[in-house]
Design a protein that fits this description.
This protein is of the alpha+beta class. Helix content is 33%, strand content 30%. The protein has a 6-stranded mixed β-sheet, sandwiched between helices. A 6-stranded antiparallel β-barrel has the order 7-8-14-11-10-15. It has a 6-stranded antiparallel beta barrel with strand order 16-21-19-18-22-23. The protein is elongated.
Length: 623
């Protein structure tokens, strides 16, 4: 059965705490100061039954930050309005906060009807409440009139609320645990305990967790929920987690306990901001504001790119530069309050986090970022087409979203056998860019048909995954051909003049005549009497035709001579187990200056294997 959290909302002294006590039997004012002053200051908790928790929040405007921390964890609201006062400033502000955080259903309790003798007045109060609820899109599941003296109306309200257990909560499909901490304390014999409402996934006793934004690692030593010890808690549960190896001084309200690696602390995020209709404030570009994420409050500044300010009722994409790190997820909702005096003025939703991009690209990204999760997912996949990620990566990134990734019938995306998610548009761009790169290279160096694989990958800034997929596809389509050390466009042919062909034959003759001894590039240039670039281009053609081989930088040998060398070495190992440099020199007649590069060539191609100062037969000893 899903766990449901209900949160009170309403003006100070409208009877929220008394109502919770009448419903549950619990007095949620636990602090001595609260009892002395008769006023709720911090969050209080009570249980209506095994499935429903009630969070009682303070009504005084000075403690709105505590109210927001409580509202971040609730699923339904309990709007409390005193019959004698009617709708008051904090009634409206609390209602704004609930709707900004996505809480749009709940119940209304009109309290203290025993001190109002005028039924018409109560009817007007109820009408006023309905108008405020309707204007903000809040659905009142029932409106209940409560007599504080005889308790009439309490039983019906309790019955209405308990019916919520038949309803389901969103985000139940998330497998990754997250809980925003709303209280931390130390318990003798147990150590540090953190409480909160499970916002995503589930957690078991003994599980490893991460605490953000401090990146502390811990293990769940024990779990309590609804006053008893349990082995596991899931979405919607009120939970007290006993954390191992963590001091209570190391964590605070506002921190997040989550599945390891699911979130990264961040200070710069892209958001969608919407101003509330009732505010008289305007948000100006670069204005310093208070942002409430989960149970945390953090200061920061807002940056607009297509507006100088934001007025009531309007929405805009923006960048938040926060003054401290927060652990937040995509599609988290948050509340914005003015810095001073403190008023609730706007709300928003997180669109993207952890951006490691130049400012110009962040600006462009912010302006184009879709709001709806499904469209944003496809937008981000296509945006990162050069460096595609796994399906698991994207599922983790959107774990908090109501949108569940399903690409089975998506013509814009495809999944490789390695479970890497690709954009088809990105795939087309990649093929086009590979083709363009080859053509530009041929224009600059027409004699160099084969281009080194690393050069292609580096210039185009493709990830290894994308590069391998694109090259494999282009080879299968016969668009490119694979050569030793590189690739070439299958349609490209080098246009050689008669002089070119004559010089190529001469270079090949030089290397054949050298026998087993490799030849320096400088010697070829001097013998041919041509400029170095032209000689280099002609040598490259011979390499492409697999006539000659680069032994090392600026050192070349003919393939026929190399094959002869390999046969000599293979015959040697039929009778001998080791090959020293002096033995190799005797076999080949090479000097130490050229013998070492040739041995290193044999090592590289696994005809030999070096062990200390000797060689043994390599994997390719049999050819």
């Amino acid at each position: 059965m899903p766990q449901v959290v209900l949160g009170t909302a309403g003006h100070i002294d409208h009877g929220k705490t008394s109502l919770v006590k009448a419903l549950t039997g619990f007095n949620t004012d636990r602090l001595m100061e609260e009892k002395d002053r008769g006023m709720t200051i911090d969050l209080g908790f009570a249980y209506l039954n095994d499935s429903i928790t009630i969070i009682d929040v303070p009504g005084h405007e000075k403690f709105i930050r505590n109210m927001v921390a409580g509202a971040a964890n609730i699923h339904y609201g309990l709007i409390v309005v005193a019959a004698d006062d009617g709708v008051m400033p904090q009634t409206i502000e609390h209602l704004e906060i609930l709707t900004l955080l996505g809480v749009r259903k709940g119940w209304v309790a009109i309290t203290k009807i025993d001190i109002v003798n005028d039924t018409d007045w109560i009817d007007l109060v109820e009408l006023d409440i309905k108008e405020h609820l309707d204007s903000r899109g809040f659905n009142a599941l029932s409106i209940n009139r409560i007599n504080n003296l005889d308790g009439s109306g309490i039983d019906k309200l309790r019955t209405d609320i308990t019916g919520v257990t038949t309803l389901t909560l969103s985000k139940q499909g998330s497998e990754y645990f997250r809980m925003n901490i709303d209280r931390v304390f130390s318990k003798t014999g147990f150590g540090t305990v953190a409480t909160g409402t499970v916002a995503n996934g589930d957690i078991k006793q003994g599980s490893e967790v991460e605490i953000l934004p401090s990146n502390l690692k811990s293990k769940i030593r024990g779990i309590e929920s609804h006053g008893g010890s349990v082995k596991k808690v899931s979405l919607g549960f009120r939970a007290a987690l006993n954390l191992s190896n963590i001091k209570s001084s190391e964590i605070n309200r506002g921190y997040t306990i989550c599945y390891p690696g699911i979130l990264k602390p961040t200070q710069k995020i892209i958001v969608r901001i919407k101003m509330i209709e009732s505010t008289s404030w305007e948000i100006k570009n670069n204005q310093r504001l208070r942002f409430h994420f989960g149970t945390s409050e953090v200061l920061g500044r807002v940056t607009f790119f297509d507006s100088k300010n934001l007025k009531k009722g309007n929405s805009i994409n923006a960048i938040l530069d926060l003054e401290s790190l927060v652990g937040i997820a995509l599609d988290d909702k948050f509340v914005i309050r003015s810095y001073s005096p403190m008023n609730t003025i706007a709300g928003g939703v997180v669109l993207e986090t952890n951006m490691n991009l130049p400012w110009s690209k962040i600006k462009d990204l912010t302006l184009k970022m879709p709001i709806e999760s499904g469209k944003r997912f496809k937008f981000l996949v296509q945006l990162d087409w050069r460096k595609p990620s796994s399906l698991k990566f994207w599922e983790k990134k959107f774990f908090n979203s109501d949108y569940k990734i399903n690409i089975s019938n998506d013509n814009d995306l495809y999944l490789s056998e390695e479970q890497i998610l690709f954009s088809r548009k990105g795939q087309k761009k990649a093929i086009q860019q590979v083709n363009e790169y080859f053509l530009n290279c041929y224009k600059t160096n027409p004699f160099r048909k084969v281009i080194n694989a690393d050069a292609i990958r580096s210039f185009l800034d493709f990830s290894d995954i994308l590069f391998n997929v694109i090259i494999k596809q282009m080879i299968s389509e016969n668009t490119i051909l694979e050569y030793q050390g590189g690739f070439a466009l299958s349609s490209y042919e080098i246009d050689l003049s008669g002089e070119d062909k004559k010089d190529i034959e001469f270079i090949e003759k030089i290397l054949i005549e050298k026998g087993l001894e490799p030849t320096q590039l400088a010697d070829i240039i001097n013998t041919l009497g041509q400029n170095p670039k032209r000689v280099g281009d002609l040598i490259h053609i011979l390499i492409q035709k697999e006539k000659i081989q680069a032994i090392s930088a600026n050192l070349y040998a003919h393939f026929d001579q190399l094959n002869h060398l390999k046969r000599i070495v293979m015959e040697y190992f039929k009778k001998n187990s080791t090959l020293a440099v002096v033995d190799f020199k005797d076999l080949t007649g090479l000097t130490r200056k050229t013998a070492i590069p040739m041995l290193e060539y044999l090592d590289k191609h696994e005809y030999t294997k070096r062990e200390g100062n000797i060689r043994i037969a390599g994997k390719n000893k049999d050819g």
